[in-house]
Amino acid sequence: MSAPSGEYYTDERWQNWLDRIADADIDTEDEDSARLLLNLQDDAAIAVAKILTDYEEGDIDEEVALGELEDIREVVLAETDLDDEDKRMLVDGVQTSLVAVFYAAEEYVAGGVADEGTVGEYLAAAEEAEQDEDLDAALGYCAQAGTQIADGESLDREVADDLDFGLVVEWANGLDSLETAMADPELVEEDDE
User: Fold this and answer.
1) Residues of the domain holding 143
2) pLDDT tens digit sequence for 56-67
3) Which of 130, 141, 169, 173 has the fewest CB neighbours in a 10 Å radius?
4) CA atoms lying within 13 Å on the CB side of residue 43
């Protein structure tokens, strides 16, 4: 009951995305640039969704699922070596968004679905914790919201849109990618331009 190493995501796959970003003319106002960054984020979220799906279906056990999630997290959250500071900051934003995805997935596998509130209530609690400068609690609430998203609940766009700009908004953005990935866990094609 184990998946071959790298079955879900590889360092090479992440590096291919970074190479594309390094070679691209990135303009955040440009739709193609925004899509490239979103695809980078969605691709990692899809790998996480595939692990969660295989775990739910009994194809891998808890230990393997947590190990695979850790492997992907280490690849995706590693410091990038992009020369362009603006591009590095944009990738850092994607990495920040994905932090909540990894924590939510690990929480889902290790502890199941949080059931003390709704996705919206957890996000509201996360925002309040962020305003109180308790970022660990804020991330914890986002992870709890994410366990529900992994279980099929939806991220209420209205709630997400009402959040004050900050880390919780970025984490909610990552959870949005997780929701999309859980609904349709197909790999984003690296070659699509």
Assistant:
1) 11-183
2) 999 999 999 999
3) 169
4) 25
**CA 156 to CA 142: how far, in whole Å?**
13
Q: How confident is the model at residue 182 (pLDDT cuts 50, 70, 90)?
A: very high
Q: Indicate the residue type of 63.
A: E
What's the pTM value of the predicted model, to 2 decimals?
A: 0.89
Q: Is 70 within a domain? A: yes
Domain assignment present for 5: no
Overall number of domains in the chain = 1
Question: Per the domain annotation, does 190 fall within a domain?
Answer: no
Residue 158 banded pLDDT, cuts 50, 70, 90 = confident
C-alpha dihedral sign at 99, 102, 103, 108: positive
Q: What percent of the chain has pLDDT over 70?
A: 92
Give the C-alpha separation, 93 to 157, whole Å. Answer: 20
Rg (CA), the chain: 16
Q: Which burial class, exposed, middle or buried, applies to 148 when counting CB atoms under 10 A from its CB (0-12, 13-18, 19+)?
A: buried
Which position has the token pair 């609940």? 153
Q: Enumerate helices (H) and strands (E) in the chain, giving the number of each.
A: 8, 0
Structure tokens at 109: 């596998």
Per the model's pLDDT, the better-predicted residue between 28 and 154 turns out to be: 154
